[in-house]
Amino acid sequence: MDVMGDMANLFETGRFAQPSDQEEAADEAQEAADEAAEEVRRRLAAEAGDVEAMSVLGAMLLRRGDFDGAESHLRAATAAGDRAAANNLGVLLHQRGYADEAAGWWRIAAVAGSAPAAHALGRHFRERGDEPAAEYWLRQAAEQGHVLGAYALADLLEHRGDETGARRWMRAAAERGHREAAYRLARTLDRNAGHRRDGRDEGDTEAADEAEQWYRQAAARGHRRAALHLGTILEKRGELKEAGRWYLTSAKDGEARAACALGFLLRDAGDTESAAVWWLRAAQDGDGNAANALGALHAERGETQTAERWYRAAMDAGDDNGAYNLGLLCADQGRTTQAEQWYRRAAYAGHREASNALAILLLRSGDETGAEPWFSKAAEAGSVDAAFNLGILHAGRGEERAALRWYERAASAGHTEAALQVGMARLRDGDEREAERFLRCAAGGGSAEAAYRLATVLDARRPPAPEHELGEPAHEKSECEEWYERAASQGHRRAQVRVGMMAAARGDVVEAARWYREAAEAGSRNGAFNLGLLLAREGSEPEAVVWWRRAADAGHGRAALRLALVCARRGELAEGQRWADLAVSLGPREVGERAARLRDALRQELSA
């Protein structure tokens, strides 16, 4: 006896019986036969005077498209007082183009209590522009629980500006399973929640949650735009797997925006090839954003001609980013005339980044007068970079107040370099507290210069370090030291020198040498000088001389004086005199005075 496996194995081996195409065809034939038999029964009953059979038979023929056969049965049933037949007779006449006669029969059925007839009559009056009559009959249908009546009433009320009534009936239709009503109710709730958030309120979380539920209900019933919006909500929340499923559902139903969004989701997951497939599908359906994405993908691969073709497709689809991206592509290739042309096209269409790019292009070509209005247009449209660039423009003219105004505007939007400029301006004005606030913003945004300047502000406030007794644990790093180290780790040379000095003060010679060397190798003359001092103290004078020489050649007076002293000690009098002369010219004053005395002594020694 065979031991039977699980269903999956049975299915794979063919043991599990499956319906064949012949069986399915047989089922369809059986259904057709049953329907034909039902029609025969209804005909016999109708011929015997059964009103219900006349009405049902007329409806069957109407669904089949046999208007001539249906009309006689529907008229007979209507004459006998059947309201369903009166409604269906109205539908038949409406489909034949006799709208007014259809309305007459719908009125008869509606007065007799037919909710579908009331709905049809309401739609008829709305098409004729008689909104009061339309509202009356649609309300009759809606109050009887007719889903389409409730939806049509909500649509009418929304059109007339009655938001409360519209939402009530839209909700009623949605609760009865109308997917378009569920979608529109979700959109309304979503917009309202968004307006509250934009108004700097906490946001209507309850409305947002309810909107999501209605999107979910509509999407589950096959509403592709609801699936798109649900995917967007889930993506923002970080639930990418479920978001991808809804995007896929919507995209397969033909929603180009969902296909585009799915492409971005796949790209972010590292699957560029699959992303390109969905972008292509969306772009071919006229989605400009997807066409731009394809253009960018080909541009990254160096396929500039293909990239240009897709950017043009995006532009033809009405996406201004297409013209802007064409400008970027031409600018990268050195085709400045064409770049300016495309930037202008996008800028005239209101593209703020194109306006900023056009202004930069004009500024580089020496047309400052032509650049400024485009910077202003971009900044007024919300471009943070343009606001910062206007600050630079005014600062270059010496218009410090105007420059500061634009820097502040950019800084308030999170521009790191603008915050640095405002912080430095506040320091010059003596407003240390405001300076600290802006410097913290810039330093937190990654500016090494801001981190260094913030550290100097905090360092100047720091009380003198107390004398430590033997065995007392070393103090924890202060905030200013942490900012110095952050700036130093970002390559800031003065911060590196400062961190080296703090390490040297702690007695950590290895750490001090590391930071001095990094600063010196990056071109810091103070770093080179301090590294020389450290090496000399550790007994490595020859190496110290190398670094002092580098510092002196870069204009460091103390390094030149040290070299003069070394040469004097070695008996290299002429070389010592040369370094002393350099130290005198470089200063500062006390160094110059010492160097002058040394130089004079060396001269006397040479002339003796």
Describe the structure.
With 608 residues, the chain is mainly alpha-helical. It is rod-shaped and about 145 Å long. It has helices at residues 7-13, 21-47, 51-64, 67-79, 83-95, 99-111, 115-127, 131-143, 147-159, 163-175, 179-198, 205-220, 224-236, 240-252, 256-268, 272-284, 288-300, 304-316, 320-332, 336-348, 352-364, 368-380, 384-396, 400-412, 416-429, 432-444, 448-461, 479-489, 493-505, 509-521, 525-537, 541-553, 557-570, 573-586, 589-607. Helices cover 79% and strands 0% of the residues. It has 35 helices and no strands.
Q: For this entry, what is the oligomeric state of its chains?
A: single chain
What global shape is seen?
A: rod-shaped
Low-confidence stretches: 1-19, 197-202, 468-474
Q: What radius of gyration results from the CA coordinates?
A: 41 Å
- What proportion of the residues is helical, as a percent range? over 70%
Average residue pLDDT: 89
Give the DSSP E fraction (strand runs of 2 or more residues).
under 5%
Distance between the termini: 124 Å
What's the helix count? 35
Biggest pleated-sheet summary = none
Number of strands: 0
Q: Determine the structural class based on helices, strands and strand pairing.
A: mainly alpha
